[in-house]
Amino acid sequence: MNKKCPIFFVLSATLFSVLILVNCGGSPSNTESTLASQENTISEGERKDTIIVDEIVIVDQNEGDIVSPLSVNSENVVLDSSTREYPISVSGGMRPYTFSLGSSPKGSIAMDGDRGIYTAPLAGGNDTVTVRDSKGASVTVRISSQNSQTQIILDDLVTPSPLVMNPSQVTLVSGRYLTEFFQFNPSGGTTPYTFSISSSSPLHLGSIDAKGGFRSYTRSPNGMDPTSDLDSSVALIIRDSANPPASVTATIHIVAPLTLKHTISIPQRETIRPIVMVNSVIHFLASGGHAPYQFSVSQGAGTIDINTGVFRASQTPVQDAFVSVKDQDDRQYKISFHIVKIQEIQLGYLHSCALLNNGTVKCWGWNQYGQLGIGNTINSLTPAQVITSNVKQIQLGSLHSCALLNDGTVKCWGNNTHGQLGSNGEMGVSPNLTQVKEIQVASGSNHSCALLNDETVKCWGENNYGQLGDGTTINRFEPVLVKLSDKEFLNNVKEIQLGTAHSCALLNDGTVKCWGYNRYGQLGIVGSAANSAALVNSSTPVSVKADINNMILSNVKEIQLGADHSCALLNDGTVKCWGRNYSGQLGNGTTSDSLTPVPVTGLSNIQKIRVGSDFSCALLSDNTVKCWGTGARGRLGNGSMGNSSTPIPVTGLSDVKEIQLGTAHSCALLNDDTTVKCWGLNDQGQLGNGNNSDRSTPSDIQW
Predict the structure, then answer these.
(1) Are 402 and 394 spatial neighbours (Cβ–Cβ below 8 Å)?
(2) Where does 201-347 show beta strands of DSSP type E?
(3) Boundary residue ending a domain (316, 340, 364)
(4) Contact 664/640 with Cβ under 8 angstroms?
(5) What pLDDT does residue 36 have?
(6) Beta pairing partners, 110
(7) Pair (216, 278) in one structural domain
């Protein structure tokens, strides 16, 4: 005997079940007689529980009523142009029905009993109409109206696709000065959608609007700084309008802003661009954003490893260069800089400066009086950016510094007790000082001088020994001309140099004139130490004599002055010095003062000479350096602290392009125009190596 086998299919979205009874075996006659028997025994009250054999029916699980599937009974039509109305009939499901249009509707929908009346737009367009029954079952049709034909064309029934959020994970940055916005656009499900942030998420990281736009906070409404809780995640919940609603979750990862870590010194003023030295190597490290990162560099600026960020600057200067990093989400961070080389270095009493080829200046060391020119009075152990530009030349004094600008004017900054700035204000420019060819300020004193284009000289500042050369001993707050007499000014000047309290000028004819303090014979006046006339100060220039026979020193190529001694490099490559010699700074193998020039022992083929307070150095033809004089605090650079009355090599120094000496420290610029090595006294950070420990051998400056 055949049996009827019930099979149940439960549709959770509509709370309906489908029951199919199938023939499990036996002959048709048996099946028919069984069916007839069953139908004859069922009462009317039991009808709601009856399933007709071999047919599919839908039973309301809650009410028990037999219903058919919800459907829309419509067809393509041509409308009456006067009404543009189209009826949508519905069958099945559970009454009453509701009709709604999708997002951005073009037409309109109205109820007419169990029907919906759709009114097409004048201009035509596309709409979706969703019909829902009282139990939440729904069907959707697409309606396309064409204005030219006033024709309605129905697509196939639209079955809502699953609710999807793509992407389901995003990374946004948040910071005190940076916010990011992301628009979430879910698809599928039943519109409209609602958006909310999970209550378990940090609420101070961002907010969501009604349209799904999420913005990370720069500072949350409750005052919390988002940077205090970075690398956190926000769970965003998206729900549709179905009954019950479907939902998906998107994850928003909040991270720090993308940035680059590096060793480049960033100026305090935004108008001054950072600098990178030619040939230098810098390791850029990316952080924040969404790793992994990719690095790039501007054309001609050098090379960079795309993955590691190791950058090697070009061998030649580049005016505008940059290194850029990009994260996985195409965020980009860029640092711009100039690639520069060093034009010259200059040393003062306890501070040092370097002029770069782009016309900017960096200084380091003692800054009590603002002599570094960086806008404060804080010492700097490494080079710091000076607040000036368009510089052609620099010179340093004891407590002040000066710069010759490209327009021929002069700026000075630092201590102005004796008027050495040439003006009454900081970073002063003297109003009557223009057309300057060269400047020179004293290393270890308080006066300054400038060589003008007409080959005359003006000086200003302290004048207690006549070092300004104007025939008086009156301090001058503004530049005055150096004069030979009341009727004649010093002229035909090729170079000027200043000591602590004396000054000298190299003339075009290769002779030298000096003026100012002469206690130790540093002016080169003929006589002996016992001859008081030979040691008298002079407030006007006098010629330096070559010997006691009153012969004038000639064939001079370069002059340099220390605290109380003077030196000259001759055209034949030899060096002569005169004046004070208590520690052997004259280099002639003795410690006796000399009123006339004496040869420095063992020097020939010399390129340049430089003089400090009580020691001297020479740059040799093989680009090495030798020094002599006081060795205290390591200023001779030979690894010891002892004095030397004859030249000795500076340890480990080669390929030197330029040397400069301060009061008790020295620096050398190498031929790569980038490397600067310094040695000697470092109590104020004047060596620029990041500490304040003295060095008896050369050490690199930390740019």
Answers:
(1) yes
(2) 206-208, 213-216, 232-239, 247-255, 259-261, 275-277, 281-283, 285-287, 294-297, 302-304, 310-313, 318-326, 332-340, 342-347
(3) 340
(4) no
(5) 32
(6) 117
(7) no
Domain that holds residue 40: 4-67
Q: Residue 633, exposed/middle/buried by CB under 10 A (0-12, 13-18, 19+)?
A: middle
Mark whether 201 and 113 lie in a shared domain: no
Same-domain pairing of 367 and 249: no
Q: How far apart are the C-alpha atoms of 421 and 416, rounded to whole Å? A: 6
What is the length of the chain?
703
> Is residue 291, in this structure, part of any structural domain at all?
yes
Tokens 């290194």 identify what position? Answer: 323
- Domain boundary residue among 193, 220, 255? 255
pLDDT per position as a tens digit, 307-330 = 999 999 999 999 899 999 999 999
Q: What domain count does the chain have? A: 5
Query: What is the residue whose two structure tokens read 């205290």?
Result: 632
Same domain, 44 and 90: no
Contacts of 630 (CB under 8 A, 6+ apart): 583, 584, 585, 613, 614, 615, 636, 643, 664
- Are 133 and 234 part of one and the same domain? no
Confidence of residue 410 (pLDDT cuts 50, 70, 90): confident
User: Which single residue is written with the structure tokens 């195409």?
Assistant: 330
What average pLDDT does the structure give for the chain? 83
Structure tokens that stand for 616 in this block: 């001297």
* Cα 35–Cα 41–Cα 44 angle in degrees, nearest 5: 110
Place of tokens 């034949």: 572
State phi, psi for 512 to the nearest 5 degrees: -130, 140
> Hey, which bits of 85-163 come out as E strands?
85-91, 98-101, 108-112, 115-119, 125-132, 138-146, 151-158
pLDDT in tens, 59-83: 333 444 456 777 777 666 666 556 6
- Max CA separation in the chain (angstroms): 157
- The span from the CA of 479 to the CA of 459, in Å, is 5
Compute the C-alpha angle 449/451/455, nearest 5°: 145
**Tokens standing for 435?**
């057309």
425 pLDDT higher than 90? no
Contact 70, 138 (CB under 8 A): yes
Whether pLDDT at 582 is above 80: yes
Work out the burial of residue 683: count CB atoms within 10 Å of its CB; fewer than 13 is exposed, 13-18 middle, 19 or more buried: middle
Question: DSSP code of 324?
Answer: E
Q: Evaluate whether 174 touches 217 at the Cβ level (below 8 Å).
A: yes
| % of the chain beyond a pLDDT of 90 | 54
CA dist., res. 443 & res. 561, Å (int): 9
pTM, entire model = 0.67
**What is the average per-residue pLDDT within 379-404?**
90
28: phi then psi, degrees, rounded to nearest 5: -60, -40
pLDDT of residue 527: 59
pLDDT band of residue 48 (cuts 50, 70, 90) is very low
pLDDT at residue 700 is higher than 90:
yes
Q: What is the DSSP string of 602-658?
A: T--SEEEEEE-SSEEEEEETTS-EEEEE--GGGTT-SSS---EEEEEEPTT--SEEE
Per-residue pLDDT tens digits for 8-19: 333 333 333 333
The pLDDT score that the predictor gives to residue 54 is: 27
CA terminus-to-terminus distance, the chain: 101
481: its two tokens: 């001309």
